[in-house]
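Quarterly update from the structural biology core.
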Amino acid sequence: MRIFAFLFLLISMSLQAQTSVSGVVRDSETKSTLAFATITPENGTAIITDVDGKFSFKAPAEIITFTVTYTGYEPQTIKISSSKKYYSIRLKPHTEELETIVINGVNPANEIIRQAINRKALNDPQQKLSSFRYRTYDRLVVTADPDSIRGLLDSVYVYEKAVRRFEKIDSADFKFKKLISTQHLYQTEKVSEFKFNRDIGLKETVIATRMAGFKQPLYEFIGLKLQSYSVYTKNIDLFETKYQGPVSDGALSEYHYKLLDTVSIDNR
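Predicted structure, tokenized:
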């Protein structure tokens, strides 16, 4: 019993030595989320926010601050509080007038892409591995900007023998703006598991779906391919439309590449 109590005390002390930190990064003006912002804990390893601007990490007791950076925005250092678990961070856009300069040389982004193209056979899982599996989450949202809708009540008139007569109040525009201000028109989600075997190729199994917005679900979405799951193919799909792959053999003549930010992980 004493040994058990001692081990429980050690585990409790270990758990107390870490603080769970999570939150979201937004633009202070537009309130839109900032995907792939860099989160650097003090004396810790940098992480990045997901596509929705969200992040989470475990902070040891000795780490008391973390810094948030994003290209084109002023960096912000946040103090970690043991009583606060969620942080809503607003970054201010940073504008700076720079002198016009001319740089003669090779675009560093092109060199990175060129190396990625040359090493496709080493990095493409379908060429490198004999089998693998992974799960995906897809979400499709149909919505509208409330500010783009007038939202006014209109009067409907009919003409009888050249005389205009009031018929009714048309509130469709008003009701639509009120609706779209609180919810999306349509939203559907899908979780799939993909299995790859070199003999049979890539196979998708739909695990779960959820649809909202229509009385009758749109089962066509289950088979809809919103985007390709590999960038190493010759062509990629985006909403059922084919485009040349970003690391295909002729990609450098098709795309313009630009380095937006760099992240150092383990001094690399």
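The radius of gyration is 26 Å.
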